[in-house]
Amino acid sequence: MSRFETGESTTIMKINKYLLFAFLLVIIAVSSFITYKITTLGSVVRPGYQSKYTIMNAEYWRGYENVDPVKRIEPLENKDVLEYLEDVNHDKSVEVLKELTAQEQQTIQEFYHEIEKWPVAIKNYFWKHVAKIYIVDGLYSSGRAECMDDGNTFIIFLNRKKLHQSPNDWIGDAEASAVKFVSEKEKIEFIIEDSDSPALTLENIVVHELGHIVSLNKSLLPDWRVKNDYASYPVVKDAFYQNQSALHRKGTQTFVFEEISYYGGEENKISIETYLSLVDQMRNTSFPSLYGSQNANEYFAEMFYGYMHCIIQKKPYKEKVTSSNGQMVEFFNGMTEVRCGEQYKMMKSIFESL
């Protein structure tokens, strides 16, 4: 073998060594990327989301995992949180709440014990992601969940008034907020619990809010503060379609929903006849409840609530609507019916992943 041939072989060996090294680097980089995507699935910092409020930074809540869960439930007197809530609370006043009454404290303890009854995986997931639950004076809705900038940390607000309301009355009043009643014969009645305990009212609200938490944490829906491309998310494909400007409801049969507004003013309320008609039309859709037809976020949260409440906890969910002329419609949560079969399968898979 000539010296030239030896040099050529040496050069080739060096090139091959460099190529092998580069190949290994690519493999390591790809593996690291895949590992990153797997380990951060559902807990990715929201790209493009910025807030002027310090409480929306996950660092603000650092160390909450080391706090006993029952101590994370407290009246709202945090000035930073109060400032934020005043801006997003539909212009309704929110007041500093320094302490709860003895009865309210007892209800909170009972509420905590209801959460303790949840399946271990669901309970652990809840306390892993919920940094704080604030009891709020003046909250416009029953509850509200807020996502921090890491997509992994959340806080929940609960309306103080709900500490004094039975679960069946609570959900009935919530639905009634959309209706303009003109006769005592007109009624919206619910059975979702066999007990009148307000602790169960709080639990029902929190299960719904947990649905919102799961949808964002697991990236099953977009963070509306960043993007609005709901139509590209599989969980809403059977219930909504999206054009360039808005998300629209759809059903297995074509029909038109009239606008329905919860917690709105008198001018937005509908008649009991219209409400009854809408509830009746639910049977032709994949919406688990009328409230779940509001938008994609509420659709998911109501599916989650329905599966947890009716399937896992095996609790009732029956609505009865009566008009002034005696017309009556009974409605059961869609997660217990064939019409929501695909949604049932989807929720089963999601719950198994928690």
Task: Jot down its keywords.
354 residues; alpha/beta; 4-stranded mixed beta sheet; 3-stranded antiparallel beta sheet; 9 helices; 9 strands; 40% helix; disordered N terminus
SSE diagram, text form:
Layout: H1 3-39, E1 73-75, H2 79-88, H3 102-116, H4 120-129, E2 130-136, E3 143-147, E4 154-159, H5 167-176, E5 187-191, H6 198-217, E6 240-242, E7 247-249, H7 272-281, H8 296-312, E8 318-322, E9 328-332, H9 341-353
Parallel strand pairs: 1-2, 2-4
Antiparallel strand pairs: 3-4, 5-8, 6-7, 8-9
Helix pairs in contact: 3-6, 5-6, 6-8
Characterization of the model:
- By secondary structure, this protein is an alpha/beta fold.
- It has 9 helices and 9 strands.
- The chain has a 4-stranded mixed beta sheet with strand order 1-2-4-3. The chain has a 3-stranded antiparallel beta sheet with strand order 5-8-9. A two-stranded antiparallel ribbon has the order 6-7.
- A hairpin with a 5-residue loop joins strand 8 and strand 9 (328-332).
- Helix 3 packs across helix 6 (198-217), helix 5 (167-176) crosses helix 6 (198-217) and helix 6 (198-217) packs across helix 8 (296-312).
- The longest helix is centred in the N-terminal third of the chain and has 37 residues, at 3-39.
- The radius of gyration is 25 Å and the shape is globular.
- The model is unreliable at 1-12, 26-48 and 252-256 (pLDDT under 50).
Low-confidence spans: 1-12, 26-48, 252-256
Q: Give the overall form.
A: globular
Output mean pLDDT.
Answer: 84
Q: How large a portion of the residues is in β-strands, by DSSP E? A: 5-15%
Give the strand order of the largest sheet, numbering strands 1, 2, ... along the chain. 1-2-4-3
The structural class is alpha/beta
Order of helices and strands: HEHHHEEEHEHEEHHEEH
If helices are DSSP runs of H or I spanning 4 or more residues, what is the number of helices? Answer: 9
Measured between the Cα atoms of the first and last residue, the distance is 66 Å
Number of strands: 9
Query: Which percent bin holds the helix content?
Result: 40-55%
What Rg do the Cα atoms give?
A: 25 Å
